[in-house]
Amino acid sequence: MKGVFDIDDYRAKAKKRLPAMVFDYLEGAADDESGLDHNRAAFHRWEFCPRRLVDVSAREQQTRLLGKSLPTPLVIAPTGLNGAFWPKGDLALAKAAAGAGIPFALSTASNMSIEEVAREVQGDLWFQLYVVHKNLAKSFVERAWAAEYSTLILTTDVAVNGFRKRDLRNGFAMPFRTSVRAACDGLTHPKWLWSYLTNGMPQLRNFATDTTSDTAAQAAVLRREMDAGFDWDDLKRLRDAWPGKLLVKGILTSADATRCIEAGADGVILSNHGARQHAGLPVPANVIAAVRDAVPASDLIVDSGVRTGADVVKAIALGANAVMLGRATLYGLAANGEAGVADVLAMIRRDIDRTLALIGCPAISALTRDFVAERPLMAAGR
Prior knowledge:
Blueprint: H1 7-17, H2 20-27, H3 34-44, E1 46-48, E2 63-65, E3 68-70, E4 74-76, H4 89-100, E5 104-106, H5 114-120, E6 125-129, H6 134-146, E7 151-155, H7 165-170, H8 180-187, H9 190-199, H10 215-222, H11 232-241, E8 245-251, H12 254-262, E9 267-270, H13 284-294, E10 299-302, H14 309-318, E11 322-325, H15 327-359, E12 372-374
Parallel strand pairs: 4-11, 5-6, 6-7, 7-8, 8-9, 9-10, 10-11
Antiparallel strand pairs: 1-12, 2-3
């Protein structure tokens, strides 16, 4: 895309194309939104310890995750309401992921159904489960397995919705509410408005199939009103019911990570939901090393705050197996659809390659904690 060189450029393009209330939904966070800054600052906290006189004439990003080989340690994270950013946004994300040879995770709150995405994408598909009602969750699990999704992600950090002031002030909801303010917002973004009018109103398609039509559950998902009683015994039952790989998302402590693995999970996803649930939660990047020490043989994925290939390299060096991309790929989606997502993935892969060369590490698999160190505190004054 002309004039786009990094993720911030894609963010600017996305902000220009989207109505303010839609961009605010993409960009916003909980409470005072300080969690956004903390997520990014956590990666800046670390600096590289480069090795010199190392042959880095060829660099290798290939890695293994959940028993499979990946060309690069990236996964596209589950995100909801992607149809608000681009027509058939879920499909655009899934196709870009398949083109890059990496997994795509479909959200329960997707605008295309489990079956629709599976029919149109030849790639490694994962399904992210919000437990609104246990019987409905059982149906989703069965549908995902029947559609040949390889991996189930249980999201655990949405017992109630985060306090997101941007969405409250904008009255953001699906379907979009008609108001003078919303109409003016749409009219000043004609490209987005045209795509919205010609492609129809996004729906939560997983709740609007031949077998499932639950408007109350749709509303609960949008309000993040999940089953707050879901506990460790329920996790064990879910493990028994799901034949594929199982990941637990929203984990931020070593104790919980250990207990997830003991309950049969194949790995955990360190996540604070992109700072969208509470500003006071730990930053995932800051707990990677401790959780890795607690579950040394299990797969560990991290998300929240990742914007560059250097961030990815730091996360892997600290002990993660892979990194999930959320807002970064959504900026590309909102700016230029599937092509934008593919370009964001290519940018991050190039930055991973460049970073490996410049720190003297010929392969992702060779990264260790010795390649990173905490930056010394800056002295006051000059």
